[in-house]
Amino acid sequence: FIAICVFVVRPGISRIIRKTPEGENFSEFYICLILTGVMICGFITDSIGTHSVFGAFVFGLVIPNGPLGLTLIEKLEDFVSGLLLPLFFAISGLKTNVAAIQGPATWVTLFLVIFLACTGKVIGTVVVAFFHGMPVREGITLGLLLNTKGLVEMIVLNVGKDQKVLDDETFATMVLIALVMTGVITPIVTVLYKPVKRSVSYKRRTIQQTKPDSELRVLVCVHTPRNVPTIINLLEASHPTKRSPICIYVLHLVELTGRASAMLIVHNTRKSGKPALNRTQAQSDHIINAFENYEQHAAFVAVQALTAISPYSTMHEDVCSLAENKRVSFIIIPFHKQQTVDGGMEATNPAYRLVNQNLLGNSPCSVGILVDRGLNGATRLTSNTISLQVAVLFFGGPDDREALAYAWRMAEHPWISLTVLRFIPDEDVTDAASTRATNETNRNMNYVNTFRAANAEYETIVYIDKVVSNGEETVAAVRSMDSSHDLFIVGRREGMLSPLTAGLTDWSECPELGAIGDLLASSDFAATVSVLVVQQYVGPWAQDDEMDLPDSPVHYHDQPNAIYGLEDPS
Question: Quick one: where's region Disordered (predicted)?
């Protein structure tokens, strides 16, 4: 039977997988055929004297790992986990007759078996851990985890009882052993093993703190290949040079389905020539190839590709951990909505929004949420004229200063035009708010003055002061700029209360973008303007940006051109 499954059934299933085009769903006929095969294998093993569960188990083992297995999980997991498993455990509980355990000797034997089983595994694991240099606490924890029981043990016990191998007393004893051992392990491990995350101490957690003559490290998060062109164009505009190169960590975010644990895969960016085994790997290959091509054509750029496979609820932990380990200064992640054919914005996957929200709340460095509305194709930097019109809306605060710092770097590119629109409250509003934000106001003024002094000679950089008194005037000023720019860079301004944005949050659809970011990303705004919403890191490792204010930025006009497709303007 096993030979038939391995040499006949498995090749047949592999043929079904090959006949289904990549990216398309398997037909219902194939799914029904697989489920019929499960029942047939169960009947065969039952007829030859083995329990039917082993036939289904062997059939499951011969199914190749890949899209077919994931499809079966998606279609059957809710039904099996929500109905069949509870029924199975309920029936097992009804079969367990605790009253059949009679006499104190039996109970003593029960506890003795539990003690010896746990102790033996713990001692054996500790000895092995000692010889491999592991801490004793981790060895004990691993030994305790080996004592947990699950579905397989209960299946074996039920098979034994159905086959009359186990009587009522033995069956009840074994079920209680499995129940007690599984029940006590979790609280013991929770108390005994408390891993402490070692925080990496590094200071350059923001773009503003990154020195102009040092490497800028960026972590790029990608959900689908559709996100790639826009992000590459944004990286091109970031202008890597010999004096300030860019190290890019590309993280493909994949939902965990059908696996026991999360995974972080480090890829070799060089092509291996092997075909993709499944849809996820095919997407990763497309993403890696795109960034590899960018690395080959752009100077002063280094790319490292990775794939994180984890649930959406904990995906931000992988991003934060990688950013901290690699000492990243800036994380770029796509917005959960993408532009439709009619120019509106539609959510591709609501779970992406959860990832963005969790990342904003836990990031160890600055974060930028990229809203793409045409930046992926209409503004490629390949000509000798201004190809990208960038605007910064500056209200003040750490997020706005970080947005200006990033735009400052981009503005040194010869084919990028930057407009900085600083919103200044009128005298009445200033008098009412002066006693609450003196320090922030001084920081804003110092940074803006330094920016203006360093860029006064550049014709491609325009600075405008706009005096407004309320949210309506702010919206009118923003709308007057939407048709003449390709990319807006704004601060998220979380927790920053200002009369200049009063009332804008009342109609906010995506609070994670902030009041201004949500306005720019809304469907009723310009359909061709992309938006980058920036949040500056302000955690325990943040430095006082006023103390770290650079004397002047690096002037990339004097450096070799590093943008793909560009020639030195000189």
Answer: 549-570
> Of 70, 95, 120, which marks where a domain is finished?
95
Cα gap 432→29, rounded to integer Å: 71
CA of 480: how far to CAs of 483, 485, 513, 533, in Å?
Answer: 7, 10, 21, 19
Tokens of 180: 């007690």
Task: Dump the DSSP string for 494-519.
Answer: TT---GGGTTTGGG-S-GGGHHHHHH
pTM: 0.72
Question: Strands, E, within 121-245: which ranges?
Answer: 216-222
Could you list the residue range(s) of the whole structural domain that residue 149 is in?
98-192
Give the C-alpha separation, 145 to 44, whole Å. Answer: 35
Domain of residue 243, CATH code: 3.40.50.12370
Q: Looking at this protein, which amino acid is placed at residue 3? A: A
DSSP assignment, residue 83?
A: I
Please give the distance of CA 205 from its chain centroid, rounded to a whole number: 19
Each residue's pLDDT tens digit, 381-423: 544 445 789 999 999 899 999 999 999 999 888 889 999 999 9
Domain count of the chain? 3
Three-state secondary-structure class, residue 569:
coil
Whether 74 is covered by a domain: the verdict is: yes
Tell me the sheet residues that pair with 466: 423
Cβ proximity of 62 and 12 under 8 Å: no
428-445 residue pLDDT tens: 665 544 445 678 888 899
